[in-house]
Amino acid sequence: MATTTTTTTTALVCALLSLLSISHSVHGIKRWPGGGSTRYYDFKVQTKRVTKLCSSKEIVTINEMYPGPVVYAQEDDRVIVRVTNLTPHNATIHWHGVRQRLSCWFDGPSYVTQCPIQPGQTFSYEFTLVQQKGTFFWHAHFSWLRATVYGAFIVYPKPGVPYPFPYPYEEHIIILGEYWLKDALKLEQAVLASGGGAPKADAYTINGHPGPNYNCSANDVYRINVVPGKTYLLRLINAGLNTENFFAIANHKLTIVEADAEYTKALPTDKVMLGPGQTLNVLVTANQPISRYSMAVGPYMSARNVPFQNITSVGYFQYLGATPNSISLPAMLPRFNDNLVVKTVMDGLRGLNTSDVPKVIDKNLFVTIGVNVQKCSRKNPKKNCKGTNGGVFAASMNNISFIRPNVSLLEAYYRDRAGIFTDDFPGAPLKFYDFVNGAPNNAPIDTNSMNGTRVFVLEYGTRVQLILQDTGTVSTENHPIHLHGYSFYVVGYGTGNYNPDTANFNLVDPPYMNTIGVPVGGWAAIRFTADNPGIGSGLCTAIWRYIYHGVCLWRLSSRMGKDLWRPSRTHQLITLGARSFVCIKNHQKDFRYFP
Ligand SMILES: [Cu+2]
């Protein structure tokens, strides 16, 4: 079991305080907090045998729990999680949505901010939840380990600070996931070897339970018992690997009050869509006749010709006094390709605390996202060419596919090691064309992307607008795009190619999010102020099904001074780094993406 204790700490990094002069804003940092309390957790990465869907297998878990232990904290708390890796696989943990103010060393993406925690090693994550509260989650950030290594991360407001909505009678965590009968890491190896797409999940799950629509799962069902008349807060988290999902409860309205751990204006709806990495808090009032109602999770698949699981995962929303084992009333989920439902909910979503939306922009970035097909080459022998037209799938941003280095990029930057990455990620596509209907090179024949480990440099304090444009090289698709180190205002989105003359922006009350589903065949505009030094990444949370990741890295200019975000007082990273600045090569389970 996870253990947690609370102690008061002194400000560990107060020495840094005087160096910071960041003006007060709603979402900005006022001053460096020492953390109200410190929460300690002990995570053991270990395997566990589970039986699901008529068969059993070993899965990787934290503390033999699936989903993993819930991390609880309060706004401005310090969180310390010691992770001990007892498996033969490399591992890291990412704290999804935590902005990691000056603590990017502990963000978790392997090969970006740290080397993986190798078998037998221990690594402690330490960070402060600076002005952050709400529903977060954590997950493994190494390969497909995150298929089973994930859990909720709940941050409450400070004592005495109320929610901006009526206090619920109870709250429940609902984590959506995907489950494969085969070993997730072996599946990933097979996908990498084939150059094609990933096989569909064998089941969707709610808190690890597939529900009665799947074989052998009549009793493998998540249920919530509710008292008639009471209002419940559901903390919805999509921890799935590849699939965007709809969620609905039969006959019940959901009122969205928080998205990606930031309050929203209350938005009533019948159903919601969550891409991998998105979280939503919804209120549900048990105001229907006493019965058992289905909570349903089904796919949202906007791309063409991609195989996906179409069996709905069901849990029970069961009233006290309902006949046990009664049939549950079915929930109405949208059709798998219902883009309008997704747009309608997004249209209604409004931020609650939005007084610091950047109105003036210093830097306008334009990044295309999508999937390319690269030609088979000497490096991609024939058997690896199961993508469209005998090629190899490669996700890209601005037509550049990310090559994973064998070192931690953050350490490479911190130690001024040359030759690991280049500072030339382009702020706009090298070529403008009909992104939605065309191809990047000689349409439609040449669909190659370039490969590289390229970083975009932002000056500290830059007010950034980033236009994310979906491309249709293989197929247009809704891409959930996530930034590390920042939340951002979603100021606009639309269909087709982005056109600044016709684009409509909301600079008054846009939602403040960390993951945005860029509309299928369309674009989204996000704004943020670059005030969190380090190296972060912008990535598609659902694009793991392709061999190359679409990743765009940013770093802030070193003018900020590296002292501000040096490794923690424990010097753990320095020590670990001295040994493993070059992350261990060819570990038996750590296959590399590129030979
Ligand atoms: Cu994240």
UniProtKB/TrEMBL annotation:
Where does it live in the cell? Secreted, Extracellular space, Apoplast
Q: What's the catalysed reaction?
A: 4 hydroquinone + O2 = 4 benzosemiquinone + 2 H2O
The UniProt entry's coiled-coil ranges are: none
The cofactor named in the record is: Cu cation
Q: Which is an annotated Pfam family here? A: Cu-oxidase
Name the Gene Ontology biological process terms.
lignin catabolic process
Specify the Plastocyanin-like domain's residue ranges: 45-158, 170-321, 446-560
Higher taxonomy: Eukaryota, Viridiplantae, Streptophyta, Embryophyta, Tracheophyta
Which Enzyme Commission numbers does its entry carry?
Answer: 1.10.3.2
Q: What is this protein called?
A: Laccase
Molecular functions per Gene Ontology? copper ion binding; hydroquinone:oxygen oxidoreductase activity
Organism of origin? Salvia splendens
**One annotated Gene Ontology cellular component of this protein:** apoplast
User: What InterPro entries is this protein classified in?
Assistant: Cu-oxidase-like_N, Cu-oxidase_2nd, Cu-oxidase_C, Cu-oxidase_fam, Cupredoxin, CuRO_1_LCC, CuRO_2_LCC, Laccase
Protein's UniProt keywords contain Cell division: no
